[in-house]
Amino acid sequence: MNLSTRTLGTTRPLTVSTLGLGCMGMSEFYGNADEADGIATIHRALDLGVTFLDTADMYGPFTNEQLVGKAIAGRRDQVQLATKFGNERLADGTRVGINGSPEYVRAACDASLQRLGVDHIDLYYQHRVDRTVPIEETVGAMAELVEAGKVRFLGLSEASAANIRKAHAVHPITALQSEYSLFSRDLEDEILPVLRELGIGLVPYSPLGRGMLTGKQEWTTLENGDGRASAYFPRFQGEALDANLRLVDEIGKVAAEKGCTPGQLALAWVLAQGDDVAPIPGTKRVKYLEENVGAAAVTLTGAELAHLDQVVPRDAVQGDRYGDMSHIDR
C-alpha cells in the first residue's frame, strides 16, 4: 500500500507520512537491541512509505541517531527526519538533566548533525522544557538554527499550553510531540485546543500505550533491560496492570468485530482524531511495522469511535504515565 501524507502546522507546514516510525527502541529502553534489525526495519519503513523518522540524541545515548544515519544513507531525500535535544546524558548513560540553554541548543544540534551524517534536520524538537531557562531563549536559539540552514522546522515535546504560546510567539512551532493514545488523553483538555488555535500539528508518541494496546505481550516475562518492568512505568505494575489489561481485552473484542488487530484499532483511533495528527508508533521489528502500517486502512465511523469511548472511558486507565511526572511541563 502507498501511505498517504499529512501536514503538520499551518504557519510553517511540514508534510510527513500519515504514520511515522519511532526509532528509540532500536537502541534502548525496551529490552535487547540489534542494530541490523533496526536498520532493516527502517529500510522496510521507507519502502512502505513510512518516511517520518523520529529519534533523539539521548536514545542510546547517541547510538540511535547513528543507527538512523546509517539506515538513511543514500535515501536522505525520502525522509522527514526528526530528532530532539534537551534530555542531557553522558556517553555512559548518566542523566545530567534537562538543558535548554542557548549554548547547549547549538552544541547539541551540531552533534546530532554529525551523528546522523546529514547537513540538516527537518524537525528539531526541544525534548523537555527546561524550567530554569525561559522558553523564549531556548526557541530563540532554535530559530537561529533555522536561519543557519541546519534545521527546517521547530517542535516542542511535552510542553504546557502556556509555553507553547510563548514559544510560538518567538518562532512558528510546526509540531508538538506528546504522549497520546486511547490510554493517554489528558492533552485533550487544554493542549489540543491551543494547538488547533495556533495551527500546530500533533505527533503522538506511544500511540500504542508502550505496546500494551497491541494485546500481544506477556508482561510478566519481559526481556532484561525492558524499562516497562520497572516502577518507572506504573501502568505495568500490579493491580494497575490487571485493570489496564481488562481494558485491552475489551479493545480486542472491538477489533475482532472490525476485522483488525487491537494495535491497528488503537492506531486508527489516533489517526481519526484529526488530519493534523501524525503518530509515530515505535518498533524494532519488521513484522510489527507492517502491522502498524495496516492501521492506515482502518476507518472508524462516528458510532465506532463513540463505542470505543464507552469501552475505554477516558479516565479508566490506572497509573500515571511515568513514575516521576516532574519532567512533564503542565
List keywords for this structure.
330 residues, 7-stranded parallel sheet, two-stranded antiparallel ribbon, 10 helices, Aldo/keto reductase
Count, helices: 10
Given the helix and strand composition, which structural class is it? Answer: alpha/beta
Low confidence ranges:
none
Strand elements, count: 11
Q: How many discrete domains? A: 1
InterPro entries: Aldo-Keto_reductase, NAD(P)_OxRdtase_dom_sf, NADP_OxRdtase_dom
GO cellular component, one term: cytoplasm
Protein name: Aldo/keto reductase
GO molecular function: oxidoreductase activity
Would you give an account of this structure?
The structure is a single chain. The chain is of the alpha/beta class. It has one domain (5-311): TIM Barrel. It contains 10 helices and 11 strands. It has helices spanning 35-48, 63-72, 102-116, 135-147, 161-170, 191-198, 238-258, 262-271, 286-294, 302-311; strands at residues 5-8, 14-17, 20-22, 52-54, 80-85, 87-89, 95-98, 121-126, 151-157, 175-179, 201-205. The strands form 3 sheets. It has a 7-stranded parallel beta sheet with strand order 3-4-5-8-9-10-11. Strand 1 and strand 2 (14-17) form a beta hairpin. Helix 1 (35-48) crosses helix 2, helix 1 (35-48) packs parallel to helix 9 (286-294) and helix 3 packs across helix 4. The longest helix is centred in the C-terminal third of the chain and has 21 residues, at 238-258. The protein is globular.
